[in-house]
Amino acid sequence: MNPREPTRPLALAIVCYPSLGGSGVVAAELARGLAARGHRVHLVSTAVPERLRSGGGGEVRFERIEVPASPVFEHGPYDVVVASRLVELARREPIDLVHLHYAVPHAASALLAGRVLGAEAPAMVTTLHGTDVTQLGAHPSLSAVIAFALAACDGVTAPSQYLRDTAAAYFRLPVDCIEVIPNFVDLARFAPPPGRDRGALSALFSQGGERAGAGGGGGPDGVSGGPILFHVSNFRPVKRPRDLIEVLARVRRSLPARLVLVGDGPERAAVMQRADELGIAGAVCWLGRRNDFADLLGHADGFLLTSESEGFGVAALEAMAAGVPVFGYHVGGLSEVVADGAGTLVTCGDVDALARAVVAGVRDPAIRDAMGRAGRARAEQRFGDEIAVGRYETYFRHVLARRTKGRAS
Question: Which residues are paired to 226 by β-bridges?
């Protein structure tokens, strides 16, 4: 990059997993936002992320990663394929900067691609998201390589101060070499509806979604007037989704609450089984993986988040933007998101305390609505998509200018 052209459009490659998880959501939304600003953006992934399928924003060029199957390997060589795809892309057309979401194994893939391309390699920036630091990245079988790869990057970002500090300690990196750029939300897409209508969600329990179990009474009948809670995740163990059912069962001792679940993952069967065991299967509606839940979310009375670790909490932010109070565990970077009266966080694993917080927050519509307004205001003031996309653009230009200066000296 020529530092004398500080406003010219950039050629960017964004590497991500195409999942409903936070890293895939942020990468896809960022790609769309940068393209809308006139930058040439290539999104590199094994599939088109769901957030890009709905269209909107500028044009994003999709570059598919295809991992070959082989009887020699138990798992395909994904990390090498990513590196090779980046090499091919950089040789095909100029790329200023590669932005990699989720360090494992993308940081190592970037390191390998950079070694292959040599002096012609684009700048490499890795964004950390959470479990790539606290679980996988810190694992003894991976930590040495991930630490080396991150140190070799031209830039590293994290969405929260918590994750920045944790990554610096785990990977022995200077704290000031990790830029904190909070995650963000599409404020137009995730917005409070003109009026909360539980009927929009109640209909799902009879026609739109799968019950948590066959039969199984729902306890107190909540077909009208009872609060409806919402949850979105990839249902991995780190999300502690079985706690959702434990909390719902306790809330239903006081209120005829029901729960809508969006997403899918390895814990799905266990969640469904627990709801059946507690006799509340009829109060749980599973919508599975779907990308159109934003129109439903704003009609919920509360959002449940029971993760044992969160680098940031994109799902919580989307709920806040939709005017829905958030009730969850006080873990990781979540307290940097859910603040200013936008919800209530309790000690991780304390399902009784979380249930009490939900009851206190949704029983009185005035309290619920006040929390919802506070969440929306916080999302607008601190986590708007235009703010975040602008911060990333500024950071990318800073990285490129610093790299150019370093090569010239």
Answer: none
For residue 279, CA distances in Å to 175, 298, 324 come to 49, 27, 27
Compute the distance between CA of residue 382 and CA of residue 231 in angstroms, rounded to an integer. Answer: 23
d(C-alpha 164, C-alpha 166), whole Å: 6
Assess contact for 41 and 35: CB atoms under 8 A: yes
Phi and psi, residue 23, nearest 5°: -65, -40
The span from the CA of 350 to the CA of 247, in Å, is 9
Half-sphere exposure (Cβ direction) of 308: Cα atoms closer than 13 Å? 12
Nearest C-alpha neighbor of 388 from the set 295, 292, 312, 307: 312
Q: Check residue 225 and give left, alpha or beta (phi > 0: left; psi -120 to 50: alpha).
A: left
Q: What is the C-alpha R_g of the chain?
A: 22
Q: Is the four-CA dihedral 221, 223, 224, 229 of positive or negative sign?
A: positive
Q: Which residue has the tokens 């391309």?
A: 117
Tens-digit pLDDT profile for residues 219-278: 333 344 699 999 999 999 999 999 999 999 999 999 999 999 999 999 999 999 999 999
Pairwise CA distance, residues 3 & 202, whole Å: 56
Q: Largest Cα–Cα distance of the chain, in whole Å?
A: 73
The residues facing 62 across adjacent strands are 43
Burial of 94 (C-beta count, 10 Å sphere; 0-12/13-18/19+): exposed
Residue 402's CB is within 10 A of a number of other CB atoms, namely 14
What the block records as the tokens of 386 is: 């235009």
pLDDT in tens, 169-188: 999 999 999 999 999 999 99
In angstroms, the CA 33 to CA 24 distance is: 14
In which region does residue 332 sit, left (phi positive, over 0), alpha (psi from -120 to 50) or beta (all else)? left
Q: Residue 23, Cα to own-chain centre: how many angstroms?
A: 5
Cα distance between residue 382 and residue 398, in whole Å: 22
